[in-house]
Amino acid sequence: MQTDNSSPEPAYADLMAEIDWFEHAMSARFTQFSDPSDRAEMPPPPATAFGENLTALGLTAGDRLIAILALMPWVAPSKLDPFFIKNAATDRCFTEFGGYSRPMHAGFLPTRQTAIFMMAGGAVDLGIAAMTRFRVEAPLQRRNVLMSHDDCYAPWLPIEPHPLWIARQLR
């Protein structure tokens, strides 16, 4: 995001554009979830140096959405609060959204299930395809963007940015 000779403003502007994109994508998913007949289009990602860096790593727009989701608890945790919406039938959060919270962090912490929801909504076939993004050999793990876990298909595992990726972004 930033080089040694640049000011933090361009990196900040890029990050804000990515967060804005994520919010629009999340809104589209929630719209589709509440009304399956609504075919709201996922917005295209913004043109940012941050995005160019991810593309250079071989990541797709879907991978980029997952990478931003992983960063959200760090940079804009309140933007994930809509995932706490409760299912009126069960009086608990929707299973489809995944996620969890911890005693030391009251905010929403995304899991692979959250990423699958963001990628596929309620489409089971797309959800199964999205699971492949968590394989050890997939770009998100191979390029050290996300922390890797032994069980590549477990949807309850957290999505956490890899410390090496964060360090690269903060240079």
Biggest sheet statistics: 2 strands, antiparallel
Into which percent range does the helicity of residues fall? 40-55%
What does the average pLDDT come to?
A: 88
Distance N to C terminus: 7 Å
- Tally of helical runs: 7
Low-confidence stretches: 1-5
Number of strands: 4
Q: Which H/E pattern describes the elements?
A: HHHEEEEHHHH
Which outline best applies? Answer: globular
| Helix/sheet category | mainly alpha
**Assembly type:** single chain
Tell me what the structure shows.
The structure is a single chain. The protein is mostly helical and 171 residues long. The protein has helices at 8-34, 49-56, 61-75, 112-120, 124-131, 139-142, 163-169, and strands at 86-87, 92-93, 100-102, 105-109. It has a two-stranded antiparallel ribbon. A hairpin with a 4-residue loop joins strand 1 (86-87) and strand 2. Helix 1 (8-34) crosses helix 3 and helix 4 (112-120) packs across helix 5 (124-131).
